[in-house]
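User: Earlier you gave me the apo prediction for this protein. Now I'd like the version with zinc ion bound, so I can compare the two side by side. Same sequence as before, with the ligand SMILES added.
Assistant: Got it. Here's the input I'm using:
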Amino acid sequence: MSEHGLRARLGRTLERAGASIVRPDPRRLDDAVLTPLPILQNEVGGLRRLSEERLRVFLLAVLLHLRQQGGILHPFLDEYVNQGGNTFVLGRPRHMPRFGPASRAPGFYSDAALPRTAFERVLSSSGNRAWSAGWASACFAELEPLVAEYLDRIMPPTLTALVCAGLLEERCIARGCHRVWGLRPDALLLSLNVERLRCARCHHEIAAASDEAGYWEGAPCLRVFCGGAYARARSDDQAYYRSLYGHGHVHRVVAREHTSLLDRDVRETMERRFIASGRGEGWPWDPNVLSATSTFGIGR
Ligand SMILES: [Zn+2]
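And here is the structure of the complex with zinc ion:
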């Protein structure tokens, strides 16, 4: 979930290597596009000539941005979401990574500013420097130059349609009775056919499922002040990692400390398992890297 969400664009991930990607269920997206189209055409003056294709790109990016912020409603995040982005609760389960004050935490959409959280306000344009206002401008400015002023009329029907189509889930949270939106995990489908698109102006890259890539061609850059547009990119430079993830045998590093502080029995067992691992006779979870002080190593 993290590999395709919060950490999807950090390092050699499956998505960046072009090995796989998760994308919104296309049938649900079809439903989500049709409902708000007439509402926006009729109720936001400058959007009378809004096309289905442009609205689809707008929704795709709203969903993509949320996924890249880690806004997927996994049950592990229920309490975190209910407490409006309190990172302290993320560290309670022992299997979860620690989130410090400087850690990048999962972000969700919210109807109000929640200070000191990764949650993004999406409904209002007043004094709003949020990504959603910039994205609405990038997407619709050729139809209505002042479109960011109408964000409070664009986002509510959009979010409602995404909820009704089963792509997003809306929750009322305990902190301040606010509404929060996150991606439903069952609305995300894994695709192994990945294409890369690159902004012609700033070279920002995105990945998309192959049958979704056509919608992104010519779409405005997600760096909302760039003004460029995406075109399909060659992805040969990622071929090594895509091949490795697709066909290679990945060996997990199992590291242990080899120190005089260990009991003799524990240390000798570790040594036997390490030697067996080196001969290819051990179990996958046997240590294959030992960290030892040089003095202890020489003494042995
Ligand atoms: Zn760009």
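For your comparison, keep in mind: The pocket of zinc ion is lined by residues 199, 201-202, 204, 221, 223, 226, 228 (CB under 6 Å).
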